Amino acid sequence: MTNSSLTLDLDAVDAYLRANLPGYEGPLEAKKFNVGQSNPTFLLTTPARKYVLRRKPMGVLLKSAHAVDREYRVQKALQGSKVPVAKMHLLCEDDSVIGSAFYVMDFLDGRNFADPLMEGEQNATRSAVIDEMNRVLAEMHMVDIDAVGLADYGPEGNYFERQVGRWSKQYRASETEVVPAMDKLIEALSAAIPAEDGQRTLVHGDYRIDNMIFAKDSAQCIGILDWELSTIGHPYADLAAVIMQWQMPPGTEGRGLAGVDRAALGLPTDEEFIAKYCERRGLEKIDNFGFYLAFCFFRMAGIIQGVLKRAIDGNASNPERAMKLGRYVPMFAEHGLAALERG
């Protein structure tokens, strides 16, 4: 096999696992997952069991992006906590093995929902899955970061100030054309950052239903995936990310709930989901939610701009989908401006 982001040198992987993974026995087969745009991910199958390998892409990468080492660390730290994650097996930071860093974890044999509509499911299932999504989110934000060894997983200081600065730089580094709405949003967000309120928690950074695996026979979440953007920061960024997705149009592109009769499908309103989260965390309410929502639209615009740039440069995990996603940068920026104006 060619040694690239989209394929694996199976002989090299097999030799590495034989030497470093207790209990591993080949022969080995690999199949790339089509989902995900950042770190190429592969299902590894042996006669006895299945694993998942997640690697950095090849080529020139943005600074601090594709941090598989951080993904490995946070999931390793959460094992045994109330936050469900796959079991981590090993991290290889030696680029000479397959051309980039990678880690290997357990394969989670469960259900994955592409979007919150969960087409074909009963209303009771939809309601239970979304409530479980809410519960796990609250649990993640109540993890004792000192006890699990993650107190230094993110810097001190104002999370949103740091994130707006970081993603503004990332966006500029991958900018392919002028998007007036994005320029305006960057300026407006920078001027509207709330004062710190004392909350400093683990945040996932891309908390969505399609980044979760649920048990085959219940609504129990058995694992949260894709921790690349995780850090120590402000919990409302994760909460707003859920609401952001729901405000997208339904279908394979938007994967949202805009215009959907949620009550008829057993799905909560934005306000009900937020209220339930606050109840679980013992919070009275959340002021200025529009800022947090605007921030999520801004960050997603920055992410998909990076995906587009990688597609143009030939380094995208799924080039065709990457080019389609890239067209949504202006829309995300405009949604962000609207959310900020609503407060």
Give me a quick take on this structure:
It is built from eleven helices and nine strands. The protein starts with 9 loop residues before the first helix and ends with a helix.
Q: Can you tell me about this structure?
A:
With 343 residues, the protein is α+β, with helices and mostly antiparallel strands. The chain folds into 2 domains: 10-106, Phosphorylase Kinase, domain 1 (2-Layer Sandwich); 123-342, Alpha-Beta Complex (Aminoglycoside 3'-phosphotransferase, Chain: A, domain 2). It is 42% helix and 11% strand. It is built from 11 helices and 9 strands. The strands form 3 sheets. Strands 1-2-3-5-4 form a 5-stranded antiparallel β-sheet, covered by helices on one side. The radius of gyration is 20 Å and the shape is globular. It starts with 9 loop residues before the first helix and ends with a helix. Pfam families: APH. This is Aminoglycoside phosphotransferase.
Structural descriptors:
about 350 residues; alpha+beta; Phosphorylase Kinase, domain 1; Aminoglycoside 3'-phosphotransferase, Chain: A, domain 2; 2 domains; five-stranded antiparallel beta sheet; two-stranded antiparallel ribbon; 11 helices; about 40% helix; globular; disordered N terminus
